[in-house]
Amino acid sequence: MRRCVFGLVVLACATSLYGEQRPEGPDASEVSAPEGFRANRVTYSAIMEVLASTRGTVSDADLEALKLLPLEAIWSGLGDYRVNYVRGFVSTQPGERVVGRALTMRFLPPRPDFVEAIDTLAAEGDWDRRYYARAAEEAQPGDVVVAELGGTDGHNLFGGMGALGIKLRGAAGVVIDGGSRDLIELQGDGFDGFPVFSRFFDVKTTSWLGVEWNAPVRIGQVTVLPGDVVVVDDGGALFFPSSQVPAVLESAAARATVEEYERELLRSRMHRFRDVYPLSPELREQFERSR
Amino acid sequence: MRRCVFGLVVLACATSLYGEQRPEGPDASEVSAPEGFRANRVTYSAIMEVLASTRGTVSDADLEALKLLPLEAIWSGLGDYRVNYVRGFVSTQPGERVVGRALTMRFLPPRPDFVEAIDTLAAEGDWDRRYYARAAEEAQPGDVVVAELGGTDGHNLFGGMGALGIKLRGAAGVVIDGGSRDLIELQGDGFDGFPVFSRFFDVKTTSWLGVEWNAPVRIGQVTVLPGDVVVVDDGGALFFPSSQVPAVLESAAARATVEEYERELLRSRMHRFRDVYPLSPELREQFERSR
Amino acid sequence: MRRCVFGLVVLACATSLYGEQRPEGPDASEVSAPEGFRANRVTYSAIMEVLASTRGTVSDADLEALKLLPLEAIWSGLGDYRVNYVRGFVSTQPGERVVGRALTMRFLPPRPDFVEAIDTLAAEGDWDRRYYARAAEEAQPGDVVVAELGGTDGHNLFGGMGALGIKLRGAAGVVIDGGSRDLIELQGDGFDGFPVFSRFFDVKTTSWLGVEWNAPVRIGQVTVLPGDVVVVDDGGALFFPSSQVPAVLESAAARATVEEYERELLRSRMHRFRDVYPLSPELREQFERSR
Amino acid sequence: MRRCVFGLVVLACATSLYGEQRPEGPDASEVSAPEGFRANRVTYSAIMEVLASTRGTVSDADLEALKLLPLEAIWSGLGDYRVNYVRGFVSTQPGERVVGRALTMRFLPPRPDFVEAIDTLAAEGDWDRRYYARAAEEAQPGDVVVAELGGTDGHNLFGGMGALGIKLRGAAGVVIDGGSRDLIELQGDGFDGFPVFSRFFDVKTTSWLGVEWNAPVRIGQVTVLPGDVVVVDDGGALFFPSSQVPAVLESAAARATVEEYERELLRSRMHRFRDVYPLSPELREQFERSR
Amino acid sequence: MRRCVFGLVVLACATSLYGEQRPEGPDASEVSAPEGFRANRVTYSAIMEVLASTRGTVSDADLEALKLLPLEAIWSGLGDYRVNYVRGFVSTQPGERVVGRALTMRFLPPRPDFVEAIDTLAAEGDWDRRYYARAAEEAQPGDVVVAELGGTDGHNLFGGMGALGIKLRGAAGVVIDGGSRDLIELQGDGFDGFPVFSRFFDVKTTSWLGVEWNAPVRIGQVTVLPGDVVVVDDGGALFFPSSQVPAVLESAAARATVEEYERELLRSRMHRFRDVYPLSPELREQFERSR
Amino acid sequence: MRRCVFGLVVLACATSLYGEQRPEGPDASEVSAPEGFRANRVTYSAIMEVLASTRGTVSDADLEALKLLPLEAIWSGLGDYRVNYVRGFVSTQPGERVVGRALTMRFLPPRPDFVEAIDTLAAEGDWDRRYYARAAEEAQPGDVVVAELGGTDGHNLFGGMGALGIKLRGAAGVVIDGGSRDLIELQGDGFDGFPVFSRFFDVKTTSWLGVEWNAPVRIGQVTVLPGDVVVVDDGGALFFPSSQVPAVLESAAARATVEEYERELLRSRMHRFRDVYPLSPELREQFERSR
């Protein structure tokens, strides 16, 4: 009985709500894009517009400081950004690390109408439709190209010529969630100091199309935003906003000091491991006094 | 010797070109987004703006006609759009087919700054940050929700309540390049006629965030555009622009007639297979005469 | 300078500590196993001995109540035990659910010395070295056999005869992180109500050896303890201690009532989805009043 | 007719048998664990108790001898232990080999009740709940830590600090059927002579729990027993009881002599390959005479 | 010293041997293929020529008898042919079994010179270059088409029209180590009694080329010879020579009788499982008497 | 009405056609293999017989020229043979390239009747049944052994002794779509200049059987013909007929000249990337003039 009454109440008060639901698709009330808007060099992202005021830029000095820290030390200081870790790349320059700022690109597979639109946009914006070529014209010193390209089932970003062009712009390296050509060339001396981290290497030329430039991308199971600090070596890649850098540097410095002390204690072979790592109250007191 | 001369020429004529190269990032010359722009219901995509004038809408009658055609018959008529095929989904309603218009969504993994921006946008745009909930308010009859969600390593789109909400909007079904909850519920009678095609099913609630609505997405190795015709059954999914429909229907009809004739000939067991499929000149002549 | 002093302090106070470190391996101070101990029917597990006093048993009535709840509803009420979910099994009786108490078995691959020791133990303990056969003698009504068997690279647990023996004991079903024989037989009517959830099915006879009985096992990335409540259907498996059952039943009941109400509201098509799921303050108030 | 009679006979003679079947679970007749038993340093394993009298220890001299033999030469002499081979590890020190005695550890994923019990046990036994830390206190010179940790879907064992602690105990290396942290550090000079063979490397800290110490474990599809001889290099890992060592050394020595002779013959280019490998009767006679 | 002498001996006696080694490639001493030989309908296989005299043909009666036996019962009687088991196919007609004689085909990927040669051969031999079409002309009643087609990374064999043609020849079914088109059509009623077991289903038309007809092929990790008995159902596929059939039928019959007796004993619940399966001496005696 | 008439026509004219269909299997009209035919050193392949007249041999000079070209440069000149690329091998000599002529071998898994036939054939042909041993007797300088061996799920080709034998014949290297033994030995200095590219390395001895020698094989998804030019390095393998070599060398030379010019232009940093790669009309004109 109560249910029936309730049903009527629902009926009475809800009709207008339903009528207010907005239809799908653009309509008269949508704000139009201004002329020339789509030719902007940075792909419009509502997300990035919202975030713009809070996104600082990491300094070159901080990049240098980060370069000396192990991935694990940085990760430990990242708090809620610890999720932003990806592994599974092959490096063209094993043993080298890259630290820089993310220049992001998103690629999609080709289809006829899409290819045509990409060509139109590139013409209007006066950039090269091949995003590796565009990066070879627009990348800034310290940039790390970060390309969403379909992962292990995806496609190639570029070959040696594109890599050379990007390197000459002063970029620090490349992270590709996809593939690359010219493995042997990229392994050579000519690319010392410019590692390419890729899921695979293949001889085929690229056919996927760059669809967003410096907009949010997905690398593995991580969201990378343009301007993110990127740290990548053979152990994987971390991506985080520059706002995290002070905390990371501070915690890593503290951690490094303690760990150096701990290693010394371990090497003395005079303590139980558990009293050293982490420091027991007594040893921590000693440590504090010794500083 | 010739090389030296050349070098000088290069030097002489190229300086100005290089100085004209545009810097990376937004600058004074970029066109600003107008107020309220980011609250538009359809996520801005330069690609879709370019394509807008050429994107028709498939009629309900054509959808009905497509519903009767095998995937392979449609594929055969797709020309350069044959690349737009994806397989590897599990259906909650085996044996059922979905034909409709793509309502696309792109999801990305969460990180603190990103989550905050998504919340801001949802508030400004007055939509639900949970895109399945938004679809349950905005989907149109005949829509097929197409969600880019990380593939087999990705995350869940929704569960039974979200599916119910979307179904009640008259949507035809869902294709998820990712996962879903509530497998058993979605397999039930309550969801007859509303199949969900997903990479996997998992009990966990969703945490990835919808970042683009009705903008280009990637499903497997295929680019799907909002408004694409979607045909999906246990054999896989096809996505193509409505402009392809007349040619598809025509070729499929012609093919169906010939194939029915060929099957009849085969069943008569009076011809060599090679003379029937494809029809030999003689049999084709007979076929033409018999129509 | 300070460091040197510190080094001396370390040297002075740590020598004795280091001397106290215990050597590896059993020594005189170890407590010996009493005679006949290894022939106990339940494999000794220090973990389970610690937990013994806190491990209750789920009642048959609670099992019945759990049988009616979707996996997702149970999962939602599991709090920190939500990690205890595994998916990726193939069921011999699609559409059926199993709810019961975990009878766990751990298997290891054979090697000559190991096989011999297993035979000795089985003789001393008077059980069948084939653990499926042992289960066919010792399983209790309501038990769910949970076998750690190497996952998709592992081995078979049993075939139809072993399954029949276990079924006749009143066991509710079987979960194998490994394989099984006799797929077709187990799919048959004779095994209605006794689903086997396995990673794969293969004709080969089993060769791995049961090494622990009713001790902790790993299924996928989940630790299962003997006596755990097991709920498994085509959507996956949950394992949790009986202490969680009251909270699960309560939260699921509450959730079910709300969700039924929400579904009714959705079907009325008179509210925005976001106001229904979850209930807006107004609708929640209505809901509370309507109960 | 015969069948009926049989049925009666079965009925008559079997009742008592059935009544004797033991119930599942511990009962009054089970032998209790003595006080302090669970605090023993070596986890109780009925299997290892049975095997104890037959398990010798490999001598340091034999380990040195084994260190010079290729994996394949050892494998050839292993007879029924040839199954005990695992491949698919990544080494932190490519080109280095490890030969030693297995110190085994089994890990399981965490869940609240389980974590609590592990803490209780560690307190009672006065060991570190973190098994890498425990190994850094208890490992003996020549030990090879062998950790069952979930394979490629598992978790990390330790990082550089734990590795340093274990190395300082004189352990020879580590084999992890799971992951490790601090790849770059472990690749460094500080860990020369102490290779870690792992399925993967990841920055995350470990969360799985050590549940058995020096008890049987599974590495890939192989059972490893504590005290097993371990030989591992970039080509994979072998595990076998010390009782196999004399036969291995003898067969490998014989094989090495013959193979050296065969290589010399091949290099002479004066014989058909088939007459050299294996030696034809004539060449074998020459070989025997030449020794 | 001894070694030097030996070296000389080697030198002295081996020169002629080496000079006799045959060069690679065809030479004057090779026997030429007779005219028209390559147009033979059955691809020449030296292996099959050697085996010809010993290869019997399984009778239709035996096929019928085999059809009633579970895969596991057949496998048990196969002795050294137990290795000839493959699993991992998807059936278009779940629940159906196929028993028949292998008509084998080997396919290779296309390349220009290869395609041209295939065309030449097909013209000379007067068969259809499309081997599914050729099977639709040449398959015999009771044949099971067994196609080596690259496994899960391979290509499609055929679609519904080819399947119809082959079915109309009286073939019993198809096993493809590769893919097929027209999943939905093949799942339909029109193909009842003609299951296709395939690794995957895809809409693309086939492009790989049939290169051997009724010659040895590899399916998974099993060698299949033309004329092999094939038994395949949802549990996998067995391939064996007809010479094994009598032993298989006999052992399976014996096994079936015993197992039926064992099941009856188990259902009586009056015996320990271990006394029933396998039968204890007492119960075996009873069994023998009861027959 | 029209249909009925048509049906009759079909019936009338088709009977004879059907009667002409050839039965499956060898029959009286088949051309018999001449005596000794199966003992030919090169396995008979109808395909290769057809192609024989058009298959040239690549010169040693051309092999040397190819050795200097990157894989990508060769691939670019391959036209329709671009499909003939395979990646995913592990090299025993990273950094080394192999260029040579394909000596192909096809292997199949063992089964009793098959093993027996292989033994018979080897005896008749006077070759070693172990194909690696046969290669160690028959390979020619510049040969690259290319073995079809089941891919990552396949088996081993050989170990160090077989590799030594083949190397001593002057072969250039080995490509195995399968595995190899003796990884460490093959990585050693003794095998400098003789890289083995394999899918995996394992200690087990080989058991699969060579069934075809210098006949078409499948490597990954590529058909390799005996005598093909093989180019393989850490970036993958290319296989193509010698007829392609002139075009490859010419296009690669042209490409190399242009690319060297382009690199110089890029390094001058005075041009937009898009004007350099590819050369703009102006720069191309400059380039042409500078030559």
Q: TL;DR?
A:
With about 290 residues, chain A is of the alpha/beta class.
Can you describe this structure?
The structure is a homohexamer of 291-residue chains. Chain A is built from 11 helices and 11 strands. Chain A has 291 residues and is an alpha/beta fold. In chain A, helix 6 packs parallel to helix 7 (160-168). Chains in contact: A-B, A-C, A-D, A-F, B-C, B-E, B-F, C-D, C-E, D-E, D-F, E-F. The interface between D and F is medium-sized, with 23 and 21 residues.
Can you tag this structure with a few keywords?
homohexamer; alpha/beta; 11 strands; disordered N terminus; nine-stranded mixed β-sheet
The description of the largest β-sheet of chain A is: 9 strands, mixed
| N- to C-terminal distance of chain A | 77 Å
Largest interface: A-B, 64 and 64 residues
Quaternary assembly: homohexamer
Percent range for β-strand residues of chain A = 15-25%
Shape of chain A: elongated
Computed Rg of chain A:
25 Å
Name the poorly predicted regions of chain A: 1-25
Class inferred from helices and paired strands of chain A:
alpha/beta
Number of helical runs of chain A?
Answer: 11
Spell out the helices and strands of chain A N to C. HHHHEEEHHEHEHEEEEEEHHH
Number of strands of chain A: 11
Average per-residue pLDDT of chain A, rounded, comes to: 91
Helix content bin of chain A:
25-40%
